[in-house]
């Protein structure tokens, strides 16, 4: 009789331990999936911002600029937002003047068109040849954002600009994760990460 009680007690204890172990695994699994889904929600929300609010591609913004200012070369493009509205700020030059305009990133509407005369040290084609961007085979804003976010390790791309350094045209992407900000430079034709700088 005593052996039977010990055996029943032993089996009951094993069942209890198995139940606790299962609960711990469930809790750990739940915690892990919660972290994963939180990260996925963050990535999804950034992608949905690009999908929902940025309906105009960089190539379409370039075309809008070129229609407004033919026979000029583009020297800078930025994708930014004000009060939740995204726009491209496009700048360019000819031999004597500098031009800029904003292109609404959802409907191509043009605003803030400006034209200024170049300084003496920039005219006669100097700025044009120094700062002209290579616009052939540009990777998209979304692809640049994905590459930059992967290089940064965490966070979401929040600002994009197309610039040039030493004959290389690149996307300069700001990736934010809380108070941490990472600047990632991505070759605008190949997608190769050129530089990464962290600012805590």
From TrEMBL:
- Which regions are flagged for Low complexity bias? 22-48
Specify whether Signal is a keyword of the entry: yes
Q: Which domain of life is it from?
A: Bacteria
Q: Which region ranges are annotated with the description Disordered?
A: 22-50, 106-132
Q: Which residues form the signal peptide?
A: 1-18
| One Pfam family here | PepSY
Which keywords accompany this UniProt record? Signal
- Residue span(s) of domain PepSY: 55-109, 139-197
**Keyword Signal assigned:** yes
What is the recorded name of this protein? PepSY domain-containing protein
Q: Which organism is it from?
A: Liquorilactobacillus aquaticus DSM 21051
Native organism taxonomy: Bacteria, Bacillati, Bacillota, Bacilli, Lactobacillales
